[in-house]
């Protein structure tokens, strides 16, 4: 699957190393069949949840006979139900994602993360979908569990390109409204939009009880602003132009960026978003591995 047209964003060796890990949800999921993830409903897994009083019609096999012997009262043992996961990978394909220093575009980095997580989710038996959007075009692939569907996801990733203005805020609100059952959403973007409107989206997703992870991709130049001569800066989404002397505006630029990052991070914490700021000079395998390891620890708490 990592050969041919998909080799731009899938690496078989990376997948081989990462497949020892498992993508866990942080919150109980509501699925359609038995799986590996906790459900808000009671079921018949091996993980004990609580006792409740016996009611006529309850399965006598779940009666706790030791409690009966000690207290002469009938109690039923309840267990956590396990279900399957529906994962939506949401990828920003606006023009700003095409920026990259020394040939490493944020868009290419995002595709590698999206494709790797899609492959892993599908191969652990869960359903994966893809949402790509930009320039009034939306590729909306609902989650499915079969290999043919995974190929459709990869074909879409192979054919999309960064263009136009971002529709992130609009699309996140739309997803929050359309997806009624709890799901895992993995959002990959540079988040070049109004931070208050963005935090509003996170509040909406949290209200709908979705578990969502935020991969905030930034090029090192966008953080360091290490330009050493007068520059002509062009907005990749609106084509507006700014002529500037970097030494004159660097301090104010960095202060504004830091204020934006702090506000975004605080908003994510407030509404339980799994926030991850990533610079594109970091190996994507490490980013994905850290994400999986931390979620595995969280699931055991």
Secondary structure topology:
Blueprint: H1 12-18, E1 37-53, H2 65-71, E2 75-83, E3 86-92, H3 106-123, E4 127-134, E5 137-144, H4 147-159, H5 168-178, E6 184-189, H6 195-207, E7 211-218, H7 220-224, E8 231-234, E9 241-244, H8 246-270, E10 274-279, H9 284-300
Parallel strand pairs: 3-4, 3-6, 6-7, 7-10
Antiparallel strand pairs: 1-2, 4-5, 8-9
Helix pairs in contact: 3-4, 3-9, 5-6, 6-8
Q: What would your notes on this structure say?
A:
With 301 residues, this protein is an alpha/beta fold. The chain is built from nine helices and ten strands. About 6% of the residues have low confidence. A hairpin with a 6-residue loop joins strand 8 and strand 9. The chain is elongated. It has a six-stranded mixed β-sheet, sandwiched between helices. The chain has a two-stranded antiparallel sheet with strand order 1-2. The protein has two domains: 242 residues, 3-Layer(aba) Sandwich (Rossmann fold); 47 residues, no CATH class. Helix 3 runs antiparallel to helix 4, helix 5 runs parallel beside helix 6 and helix 6 packs parallel to helix 8.
